[in-house]
TrEMBL record:
PANTHER family: CELL FATE DETERMINING PROTEIN MAB21-RELATED, CYCLIC GMP-AMP SYNTHASE
Signal peptide: none
Xref: InterPro entries: Mab-21-like_nuc_Trfase, Mab-21_HhH/H2TH-like, MAB21L/cGLR
Name the record gives this protein: Cyclic GMP-AMP synthase
Domain Mab-21-like nucleotidyltransferase, residue spans: 70-247
Gene label: LOC101390961
Residues annotated as domain Mab-21-like HhH/H2TH-like: 263-367
Family to which the UniProt record says this protein belongs: Belongs to the mab-21 family.
Classification via Pfam families: Mab-21, Mab-21_C
Length: 380
């Protein structure tokens, strides 16, 4: 279990005065910008879903699952990146955990009556993530040729990435990550039993309800030596994260029109922006390559677990609350421990995942920012 993270008293506020509200203001995407981008993305995505549902392929059962920061309302900077999941329900599957990883699994089918629509992707008895992903990719590549009034291309495949990335160049540049996800309605794998620690924050009832939702598997391969085990699938709970971020208050009315506003989402936005700006600043160096907004989001969820009361996230305490999130993230970097929020056995900051020098480098940069009033927020 995670030890208590350091907290800061008001006296220890950073010396360089910076104004978090002003920073957030610059991050606010104009409604117009968002709806223009979303309109293009929705048109392309809806076209693809309809075509997949109509064509005689293994993917005709796909439906759309909108996840990611745009739909969680924590998108920052410009609306130029979207994630969408194309989910495919797979009944009667059996999971076999890969190397005690907790997160990666081989997928098998329990009974294989002749009618298994996915049989062409089976490697012996295992549903091959790479085979399925390449066919999915091929169909999408074919389909985007039929989309009118929009310039779309499929980006070159990135090794180990579960996404098919579309680049839309007109009316403006937008990247859309389309992720194929298998939907399973069986109970969540054993590795998640102690995860989702929201009992004291959102309540036991909410946790039970969330755990009754389906879970998803995405074709993100497990690392194997210097390569990847290409047949594996990774658990995904992005739909649950979206739910939590939407209904994030201990009181049911937190941030509703007549409810009291909290600063939880603002803290998450600032944390994401901090990492994004540092990655820009040091884009010519390798140290920050492996860090991503998911690390920030995971740390943030742990802080919400540790400080469950809405009164600990009052809007007027934004600077303190953000300071507390930063301190916790630094604590994770220093101890080389960031537990996956849903699979506590998985340590996202283990030396095996991210080398120590990278963590020390990021830690040093964040310390510098914190001591100097976050100058990086004003750069680029």
């Amino acid at each position: 279990p995670l030890g208590p993270a350091p907290t800061f008293g008001p006296r220890e506020a950073a010396p360089g005065a910076w104004r978090p509200r002003a920073v957030l203001e610059t991050l606010r995407l104009s409604r117009q910008e968002i709806s223009a981008a979303a309109e293009v993305v929705n048109r392309v995505v809806d076209h693809l879903v309809q075509r997949l549902q109509r064509c005689e392929s293994e993917f005709r059962g796909v439906t759309l699952l909108r996840t990611g920061s745009y739909y969680e309302r924590v998108k920052i900077s410009s609306p130029n990146e979207f994630d969408v999941m194309f989910k495919l329900e797979v009944p009667r599957i059996q999971l076999e955990e890969y190397c005690n990883s907790g997160a990666h699994y081989f997928v098998k089918f329990k009974r294989n009556p002749k009618g298994n629509p996915l049989s062409e992707f089976l490697e012996e008895e295992i549903l091959s993530a790479s085979k399925m992903l390449s066919k999915f990719r091929k169909i999408i590549k074919e389909e985007i040729k039929h989309i009118e009034d929009t310039d779309v291309i499929v980006e070159r495949k990135r090794r180990g990435s579960p996404a098919v990335t579309l680049l839309i160049s007109k009316p403006k540049e937008i990247a859309v990550d389309i992720i194929l996800a298998l939907e399973s309605k069986s109970s969540w794998p054993a590795s998640t039993k102690e995860g989702l620690p929201i009992d004291n924050w959102l309540g036991v009832k909410v946790r039970n309800t969330l755990r009754r939702q389906p879970f998803y598997l995405v074709p993100k391969h497990a690392k194997e030596g210097n390569g990847f085990q290409e047949e594996t699938w990774r658990l995904s709970f992005s739909h649950i994260e979206k739910d939590i971020l939407k209904n994030h208050g201990q009181s049911k009315t937190c941030c509703e029109i007549n409810g009291v506003k909290c600063c939880r989402k603002d803290c998450l936005k600032l944390m994401k922006y901090l990492l994004e700006q540092l990655k820009k600043k040091f884009r010519n160096r390798k140290e920050l390559d492996k860090f991503c907004s998911y690390h920030v989001k995971t740390a943030f969820l742990h802080v919400c677990t540790r400080d469950p009361a809405d009164s600990q996230w009052r809007c007027e305490d934004l600077e303190l609350c953000f300071g507390s999130c930063v301190a916790y993230f630094l604590h994770c970097l220093e101890t080389e421990r960031l537990e996956h929020y849903f699979i506590p056995g998985v340590n996202l900051f283990s030396p095996h995942q991210i080398e120590k020098p990278s963590k020390e480098f990021l830690s040093k940069q964040i310390e510098y920012e914190r001591s100097n009033g976050f100058p990086v927020f004003g750069e680029f």
